[in-house]
Amino acid sequence: MRHKTTTQKQIGPVKQRFVVLDALRGFALLGIILANFPEFSLWTFQNYATPDIHHLTADNMVQALLCFFVDGKFYTLFSLLFGIGFSIIIGNAMSRGADGRRIFYRRMTVLCLIGLAHLLLLWSGDILLLYALMGMLLPLFWKCTDRQLLRWAAFFLLLPVAIDLSRWLTGYSLADGCYEAWWAACDRYGVTEENFGTWLRDGQSYGAMHSFLMQGAVERIWEFVSGNRYFKVLGLFLIGLYIGRQRLYANLHECREWLRKVQKIGFAMGLPLSVFYTWSSIGGHPWGPVVHSLLYALSVYPMGFAYAAAFCLLYENTMRERFRTELLKTFERFTIHKDTDKKEGLIWNLLAQPGKMALTCYLSQSLCGVILFYGVGFGMGADTSLWMTELWALGVFIMQIALCALWLRYFRFGPLEWIWRMLTYGQWLKLRKEQNP
Asked: Alpha-carbon distance 17 to 22, whole Å?
């Protein structure tokens, strides 16, 4: 009985949560829903998604802003946080004498199954499966020195540029076979270029939606291969692992100068080069795939790193100055669950709510997209403008903040986090909090 009790304590909620990490994860979720909803609304698949530069519409302007400020940047943040999370899991396990690698591999196996189900049953744009597969490689780098970690990260982040250059020089691409397999799957299910952009809106049954998801899964593989996404993800994971090993998130005050440098260099590189990256993205890569790949590496990553540094600096400034408002005093009892440190500001705790339930929020964003835009739901897809699509995305995210705050007042984990955790440890965990009399 004593061993069982000890184990239960080990796998309960994390005793020390860093609000800055939860808030940054919530911020990343906001960017992810803004990036993903144009695909849910099927706007991306319509002819007007390619703008006439001589007659720009409101949607074209929103598209340019998304490319400039959102595209790739928030997925960069989410990937960094994944690497940080790996370091925390391994470090906590080692501190209590447990086999951290075994726990992590079980955790990634469960995430792999969740991602596969998401890909095949709900949305073809899943990223969890790739995260789980690439995450399984992280223990191989655990014993690397910090310098080796950063070198490997730089190698993997720049490798896609070299691969695209090789494609251009040789005319050979591993993605060609995936592309042929994708269109073979389209032929099998009756998906054509003519009905591709409206299939999910016009299909009134889940069977029709599932047929599209089957070819979409093959398309997703082609996207990963053609975009060298696996190398990009692994490189960002390794940078997150470096940050986690240094525990930079726990010593923001001591890291202020370092964060300022990252912010300054990131924005100095990212902002001007993002202009060219945006032009290349919405113009169909007019300078070729190699230049586009190079622009991605030199604009998206620096901007993502600058976002993270600026976010942490703003958080540290707020905490250092003990910024408290009457608004916090009025609303903290509704937006902060009982385990949260009351010294944190209102805005950080609001963002931290979905950040503590990131898996649940990510998958529920997909569910909301299906309900709003597909034929099995309200069927608004293919007819909704991009700016209205983004308003829907903001509305869904605000709703998630409120629901997560309410949920975490009474429960220890998010619903999917609870299931994920139990499957990882193979034990039943109590979900509901004990209410004080």
From this structure: 8
